[in-house]
Amino acid sequence: MANIDQLRTGQPIPTTRSNQTKVGSTSSDAPSTAAAASSPRVKNDAVSLSAQGKAVGQIHQQLAAEPSFDSAKVAEIKQAIADGSYKVDADKLASNMTKFEDELRGI
After folding, report:
1. Rounded distance between C-alpha atoms, residue 98 and residue 95, angstroms
2. Among residues 41, 20, 21, which one has the least CA distance to residue 29?
3. Staple 80 to which of 32, 74, 86, 95, CB 3.0 to 4.6 Å?
4. Looking at residue 95, what is its pLDDT?
5. How far is the C-alpha of 27 from the C-alpha of 23, rounded, in Å?
């Protein structure tokens, strides 16, 4: 059994598989060991996304394509700071900080 600490460190967990045959099976039921050793195992894994999963993927792509900030607003604020006209609304700042902390508690 894997230790939980191994999962947290991101280290791969060694796994082993046994090729045991069912109890009571005959040698004709199981492939020969020479044939099993010489032929590679083929896995055919498949993933299917629901319509909701696809929609989330599309939204993610749209958001990734958009800029993460409003460059015009940033330029405006930089100019206001440079010319000394930028004023901080302390009440609004405190309110937004409290709101942000409340959102973090909900996570």
Report:
1. 5
2. 21
3. 86
4. 97
5. 11
DSSP state of 13: P
Q: How many residues does the chain have?
A: 107
Per-residue model confidence as pLDDT tens digits over 36-46: 555 567 788 88
**Distance spanning both ends of the chain, measured CA to CA:** 31
Q: Of 99, 73, 68, which Cα lies nearest the Cα of 86?
A: 73
Distance CA 77, CA 70 (A): 11
Structure-block tokens of residue 74: 């940033």
**Residue 28 structure tokens:** 């004709």
Distant-in-sequence contacts of 91-95, Cβ < 8 A, 24+ apart: none
How far apart are alpha carbons 20 and 33 in whole angstroms?
11
pLDDT per position as a tens digit, 47-76: 888 999 999 999 999 988 888 889 999 999
